[in-house]
What we know:
Number of helices: 10
Bound molecules: cytidine-5'-monophosphate
Structural class: alpha+beta
Pathway: Isoprenoid biosynthesis; isopentenyl diphosphate biosynthesis via DXP pathway; isopentenyl diphosphate from 1-deoxy-D-xylulose 5-phosphate: step 3/6
Order of helices and strands: EEEHEHHHEEEHHHEHHEEHEE
Protein name: 4-diphosphocytidyl-2-C-methyl-D-erythritol kinase
Binding site for ATP: 95-105
Family: Belongs to the GHMP kinase family. IspE subfamily.
Largest sheet: 8 strands, mixed
Pfam families: GHMP_kinases_C, GHMP_kinases_N
Amino acid sequence: MSVTVRVPAKVNVQLAVGGVRPDGYHDLANVFLAVGLYDEVTVERAGSLTVTCDGPDAGQVPLDRTNLAARAAELLAARHGIAPDVHIHIAKDIPVAGGMAGGSADGAGALLACDALWGLGSSRAELLAICAELGSDVPFSLVGGAALGTGRGEHLTELEVGGTFHWVFAMADGGLSTPVVFGEFDRLTEGVAVPEPAASPALLDALRTGDTVALAGALVNDLQPAALSLRPALGATLDAGTAAGALAALVSGSGPTTAFLVKDAEAARGVAEALVASGTCRAARVAAGPAAGARVVSGG
Ligand code: C5P
Protein backbone atom coordinates (compact mmCIF):
# COMPACT_ATOMS: atom_id res chain seq x y z
CA MET A 1 0.00 0.00 0.00
CA SER A 2 1.18 3.54 -0.71
CA VAL A 3 -0.13 7.00 0.12
CA THR A 4 0.31 10.05 -2.15
CA VAL A 5 -0.06 13.63 -0.95
CA ARG A 6 -0.15 16.67 -3.22
CA VAL A 7 1.35 19.91 -1.82
CA PRO A 8 1.38 23.42 -3.34
CA ALA A 9 4.14 25.99 -3.77
CA LYS A 10 3.78 29.45 -2.23
CA VAL A 11 4.52 33.03 -3.06
CA ASN A 12 4.95 35.65 -0.35
CA VAL A 13 2.70 38.56 -1.23
CA GLN A 14 4.09 40.47 1.74
CA LEU A 15 7.35 39.60 3.44
CA ALA A 16 8.05 42.17 6.15
CA VAL A 17 11.31 41.39 7.97
CA GLY A 18 12.26 42.69 11.43
CA GLY A 19 15.67 42.79 13.08
CA VAL A 20 17.65 39.66 13.87
CA ARG A 21 16.57 37.94 17.14
CA PRO A 22 18.87 36.43 19.78
CA ASP A 23 18.14 32.95 18.30
CA GLY A 24 19.36 34.09 14.86
CA TYR A 25 15.89 34.14 13.29
CA HIS A 26 14.02 37.25 12.19
CA ASP A 27 10.52 38.20 13.26
CA LEU A 28 8.31 38.35 10.21
CA ALA A 29 4.94 39.48 8.98
CA ASN A 30 4.74 36.94 6.22
CA VAL A 31 1.63 36.82 4.04
CA PHE A 32 1.65 33.52 2.18
CA LEU A 33 -0.45 32.64 -0.85
CA ALA A 34 -0.43 29.01 -2.03
CA VAL A 35 -0.29 28.67 -5.82
CA GLY A 36 -1.08 25.78 -8.14
CA LEU A 37 2.38 24.35 -8.73
CA TYR A 38 2.65 21.06 -6.88
CA ASP A 39 5.01 18.41 -5.61
CA GLU A 40 3.58 14.94 -5.02
CA VAL A 41 5.00 12.89 -2.17
CA THR A 42 4.37 9.13 -2.13
CA VAL A 43 5.28 6.90 0.83
CA GLU A 44 5.27 3.13 1.16
CA ARG A 45 6.60 0.70 3.76
CA ALA A 46 10.23 -0.35 3.20
CA GLY A 47 13.15 -1.97 5.01
CA SER A 48 14.73 1.41 5.83
CA LEU A 49 14.18 5.14 5.26
CA THR A 50 15.04 6.04 1.66
CA VAL A 51 14.23 8.99 -0.60
CA THR A 52 14.05 9.22 -4.40
CA CYS A 53 13.04 12.18 -6.55
CA ASP A 54 12.15 12.83 -10.16
CA GLY A 55 11.33 16.01 -12.07
CA PRO A 56 13.23 18.74 -13.94
CA ASP A 57 15.30 19.87 -10.89
CA ALA A 58 15.57 16.43 -9.24
CA GLY A 59 19.37 16.40 -9.48
CA GLN A 60 19.56 19.28 -6.96
CA VAL A 61 17.42 17.57 -4.30
CA PRO A 62 19.34 16.00 -1.38
CA LEU A 63 18.31 12.36 -0.91
CA ASP A 64 19.84 11.94 2.56
CA ARG A 65 18.46 12.69 6.02
CA THR A 66 18.76 16.45 5.40
CA ASN A 67 15.76 16.21 3.06
CA LEU A 68 12.81 17.71 4.95
CA ALA A 69 10.62 14.80 3.82
CA ALA A 70 12.98 12.31 5.51
CA ARG A 71 13.16 14.50 8.62
CA ALA A 72 9.34 14.65 8.75
CA ALA A 73 9.10 10.84 8.69
CA GLU A 74 11.76 10.59 11.42
CA LEU A 75 10.11 13.18 13.70
CA LEU A 76 6.65 11.63 13.37
CA ALA A 77 7.97 8.10 13.91
CA ALA A 78 9.99 9.18 16.97
CA ARG A 79 6.89 10.71 18.56
CA HIS A 80 5.10 7.39 18.24
CA GLY A 81 8.03 5.13 19.13
CA ILE A 82 8.05 3.43 15.73
CA ALA A 83 10.76 2.98 13.08
CA PRO A 84 10.64 5.47 10.17
CA ASP A 85 11.01 2.66 7.63
CA VAL A 86 9.42 4.11 4.52
CA HIS A 87 10.42 4.74 0.97
CA ILE A 88 9.59 8.35 0.08
CA HIS A 89 9.28 9.34 -3.56
CA ILE A 90 9.03 13.01 -4.49
CA ALA A 91 7.60 13.94 -7.90
CA LYS A 92 9.06 17.42 -7.98
CA ASP A 93 7.53 20.25 -9.96
CA ILE A 94 8.29 23.14 -7.54
CA PRO A 95 11.62 24.89 -8.23
CA VAL A 96 14.42 23.77 -5.89
CA ALA A 97 15.94 26.45 -3.56
CA GLY A 98 13.77 28.93 -5.44
CA GLY A 99 11.96 30.80 -2.66
CA MET A 100 8.71 28.92 -3.32
CA ALA A 101 8.85 26.57 -0.29
CA GLY A 102 9.53 23.44 -2.34
CA GLY A 103 11.49 21.74 0.45
CA SER A 104 8.86 22.78 2.98
CA ALA A 105 6.14 21.33 0.74
CA ASP A 106 7.93 17.97 0.72
CA GLY A 107 8.22 18.06 4.54
CA ALA A 108 4.51 18.76 4.99
CA GLY A 109 3.61 16.20 2.31
CA ALA A 110 5.70 13.39 3.82
CA LEU A 111 4.30 14.15 7.27
CA LEU A 112 0.70 13.87 6.14
CA ALA A 113 1.43 10.81 3.99
CA CYS A 114 3.25 8.94 6.79
CA ASP A 115 0.49 9.80 9.25
CA ALA A 116 -2.01 8.15 6.89
CA LEU A 117 0.26 5.18 6.00
CA TRP A 118 0.91 4.40 9.67
CA GLY A 119 -2.74 5.02 10.64
CA LEU A 120 -1.74 7.45 13.39
CA GLY A 121 -4.67 9.86 13.05
CA SER A 122 -2.65 12.82 14.39
CA SER A 123 -4.64 15.98 15.06
CA ARG A 124 -4.11 19.09 12.96
CA ALA A 125 -2.45 20.75 15.98
CA GLU A 126 0.01 17.84 16.40
CA LEU A 127 0.90 17.94 12.69
CA LEU A 128 1.35 21.73 12.77
CA ALA A 129 3.69 21.46 15.78
CA ILE A 130 5.92 18.99 13.87
CA CYS A 131 5.78 21.24 10.80
CA ALA A 132 7.02 24.21 12.88
CA GLU A 133 9.90 22.06 14.15
CA LEU A 134 10.82 21.16 10.55
CA GLY A 135 11.03 24.78 9.35
CA SER A 136 9.44 28.20 9.42
CA ASP A 137 7.49 27.78 6.14
CA VAL A 138 6.39 24.15 6.64
CA PRO A 139 3.15 24.86 8.59
CA PHE A 140 1.89 26.97 5.70
CA SER A 141 2.53 24.16 3.20
CA LEU A 142 0.16 21.99 5.24
CA VAL A 143 -2.53 24.67 5.53
CA GLY A 144 -2.44 26.25 2.04
CA GLY A 145 -4.88 28.93 0.90
CA ALA A 146 -3.62 32.23 2.27
CA ALA A 147 -2.31 32.98 5.74
CA LEU A 148 -0.41 35.54 7.78
CA GLY A 149 2.66 34.02 9.42
CA THR A 150 4.11 35.78 12.46
CA GLY A 151 6.99 34.94 14.80
CA ARG A 152 9.56 33.37 12.47
CA GLY A 153 6.63 32.74 10.12
CA GLU A 154 5.31 29.59 11.78
CA HIS A 155 2.35 31.07 13.73
CA LEU A 156 -0.43 31.13 11.17
CA THR A 157 -3.66 33.05 10.92
CA GLU A 158 -5.67 31.90 7.94
CA LEU A 159 -6.86 34.70 5.64
CA GLU A 160 -9.99 35.10 3.60
CA VAL A 161 -9.41 35.45 -0.17
CA GLY A 162 -12.18 36.85 -2.37
CA GLY A 163 -10.96 35.79 -5.81
CA THR A 164 -8.34 34.07 -7.92
CA PHE A 165 -4.97 35.70 -8.60
CA HIS A 166 -2.98 34.83 -11.72
CA TRP A 167 0.81 34.64 -11.61
CA VAL A 168 3.83 33.94 -13.75
CA PHE A 169 6.97 32.55 -12.12
CA ALA A 170 10.36 32.91 -13.75
CA MET A 171 12.93 30.30 -12.73
CA ALA A 172 16.56 31.39 -12.47
CA ASP A 173 19.66 29.26 -12.88
CA GLY A 174 20.82 27.86 -9.53
CA GLY A 175 19.29 28.43 -6.12
CA LEU A 176 19.77 31.00 -3.36
CA SER A 177 20.28 29.87 0.22
CA THR A 178 17.66 31.29 2.60
CA PRO A 179 20.15 31.84 5.50
CA VAL A 180 22.56 33.59 3.12
CA VAL A 181 19.79 35.94 1.90
CA PHE A 182 18.79 36.74 5.51
CA GLY A 183 22.48 37.35 6.25
CA GLU A 184 22.67 39.80 3.35
CA PHE A 185 19.52 41.51 4.69
CA ASP A 186 21.36 41.95 8.03
CA ARG A 187 24.42 43.35 6.26
CA LEU A 188 22.36 45.82 4.20
CA THR A 189 20.38 47.00 7.24
CA GLU A 190 23.35 47.28 9.62
CA GLY A 191 23.06 50.49 11.66
CA VAL A 192 19.51 51.09 10.35
CA ALA A 193 16.54 50.95 12.73
CA VAL A 194 14.44 48.09 11.27
CA PRO A 195 10.76 48.63 12.14
CA GLU A 196 8.58 45.93 13.73
CA PRO A 197 7.15 43.86 10.88
CA ALA A 198 3.41 44.32 10.42
CA ALA A 199 0.89 43.09 7.88
CA SER A 200 -0.28 45.80 5.48
CA PRO A 201 -4.01 46.56 5.88
CA ALA A 202 -4.21 47.51 2.17
CA LEU A 203 -2.75 44.16 1.17
CA LEU A 204 -5.06 42.14 3.43
CA ASP A 205 -7.98 44.11 2.02
CA ALA A 206 -6.91 43.39 -1.57
CA LEU A 207 -6.77 39.66 -0.80
CA ARG A 208 -10.16 39.72 0.94
CA THR A 209 -11.85 41.52 -1.95
CA GLY A 210 -9.99 39.61 -4.70
CA ASP A 211 -8.78 42.91 -6.20
CA THR A 212 -5.77 42.13 -8.42
CA VAL A 213 -4.87 45.77 -9.17
CA ALA A 214 -4.95 46.67 -5.47
CA LEU A 215 -2.85 43.60 -4.63
CA ALA A 216 -0.35 44.59 -7.33
CA GLY A 217 0.05 47.97 -5.64
CA ALA A 218 0.58 46.42 -2.21
CA LEU A 219 3.06 43.58 -2.92
CA VAL A 220 6.26 43.97 -0.89
CA ASN A 221 9.27 41.80 -0.14
CA ASP A 222 11.84 43.16 2.32
CA LEU A 223 14.26 40.40 1.22
CA GLN A 224 14.24 41.64 -2.37
CA PRO A 225 17.16 44.11 -1.99
CA ALA A 226 19.23 41.32 -0.43
CA ALA A 227 18.34 38.82 -3.19
CA LEU A 228 19.15 41.45 -5.86
CA SER A 229 22.42 42.33 -4.15
CA LEU A 230 23.46 38.64 -4.28
CA ARG A 231 22.03 38.08 -7.78
CA PRO A 232 21.95 41.44 -9.65
CA ALA A 233 20.83 39.72 -12.90
CA LEU A 234 17.36 39.24 -11.35
CA GLY A 235 16.77 42.97 -11.97
CA ALA A 236 16.66 42.32 -15.74
CA THR A 237 14.09 39.52 -15.22
CA LEU A 238 11.87 41.82 -13.14
CA ASP A 239 12.16 44.53 -15.83
CA ALA A 240 11.35 42.06 -18.65
CA GLY A 241 8.14 40.91 -16.91
CA THR A 242 7.05 44.48 -16.22
CA ALA A 243 7.77 45.49 -19.85
CA ALA A 244 5.64 42.52 -20.98
CA GLY A 245 2.64 43.90 -19.10
CA ALA A 246 2.78 42.34 -15.62
CA LEU A 247 0.88 44.47 -13.07
CA ALA A 248 3.66 43.92 -10.52
CA ALA A 249 6.93 42.05 -10.25
CA LEU A 250 8.83 40.87 -7.18
CA VAL A 251 11.30 38.30 -5.95
CA SER A 252 9.49 35.29 -4.47
CA GLY A 253 10.54 34.85 -0.82
CA SER A 254 14.32 34.61 -0.61
CA GLY A 255 14.54 34.06 -4.40
CA PRO A 256 15.87 33.57 -6.98
CA THR A 257 12.46 32.77 -8.51
CA THR A 258 10.71 35.97 -9.55
CA ALA A 259 6.92 36.36 -9.43
CA PHE A 260 4.70 38.45 -11.71
CA LEU A 261 1.08 39.27 -10.90
CA VAL A 262 -1.07 39.55 -14.04
CA LYS A 263 -4.73 40.29 -14.67
CA ASP A 264 -5.91 36.93 -16.00
CA ALA A 265 -4.86 33.54 -17.39
CA GLU A 266 -4.44 34.90 -20.92
CA ALA A 267 -2.14 37.70 -19.74
CA ALA A 268 -0.19 35.07 -17.81
CA ARG A 269 0.53 33.08 -20.96
CA GLY A 270 1.70 36.25 -22.79
CA VAL A 271 4.01 37.37 -19.98
CA ALA A 272 5.44 33.83 -19.64
CA GLU A 273 6.26 33.73 -23.36
CA ALA A 274 7.83 37.19 -23.26
CA LEU A 275 9.95 36.25 -20.22
CA VAL A 276 11.31 33.14 -21.94
CA ALA A 277 11.95 35.12 -25.16
CA SER A 278 13.82 37.81 -23.16
CA GLY A 279 16.51 35.28 -22.25
CA THR A 280 16.55 36.59 -18.65
CA CYS A 281 15.30 33.36 -17.07
CA ARG A 282 15.68 29.59 -17.39
CA ALA A 283 11.95 28.87 -17.71
CA ALA A 284 8.59 30.45 -16.89
CA ARG A 285 5.48 28.85 -15.43
CA VAL A 286 1.96 30.10 -14.92
CA ALA A 287 -0.07 29.31 -11.79
CA ALA A 288 -3.09 30.67 -9.96
CA GLY A 289 -3.75 31.05 -6.26
CA PRO A 290 -5.08 30.44 -3.70
CA ALA A 291 -4.47 26.68 -3.92
CA ALA A 292 -5.47 24.06 -1.35
CA GLY A 293 -2.88 22.90 1.19
CA ALA A 294 -1.39 19.41 1.51
CA ARG A 295 -4.00 16.71 0.83
CA VAL A 296 -4.04 12.97 0.33
CA VAL A 297 -4.80 12.25 -3.34
CA SER A 298 -4.47 8.45 -3.30
CA GLY A 299 -4.10 5.69 -0.74
CA GLY A 300 -4.69 6.43 2.93
O1 C5P B 1 13.09 27.86 9.52
P1 C5P B 1 14.01 27.46 8.43
O2 C5P B 1 14.91 26.32 8.79
O3 C5P B 1 13.30 27.21 7.13
O4 C5P B 1 14.95 28.70 8.14
C1 C5P B 1 16.11 28.59 7.38
C2 C5P B 1 17.04 29.74 7.73
O5 C5P B 1 16.47 30.97 7.26
C3 C5P B 1 17.28 29.95 9.21
O6 C5P B 1 18.35 29.18 9.66
C4 C5P B 1 17.61 31.45 9.28
O7 C5P B 1 18.93 31.68 8.89
C5 C5P B 1 16.71 32.02 8.20
N1 C5P B 1 15.44 32.53 8.73
C6 C5P B 1 15.43 33.68 9.47
N2 C5P B 1 14.25 34.16 9.96
C7 C5P B 1 13.09 33.51 9.72
C8 C5P B 1 13.06 32.33 8.95
C9 C5P B 1 14.27 31.85 8.46
O8 C5P B 1 16.47 34.31 9.69
N3 C5P B 1 11.96 34.01 10.19
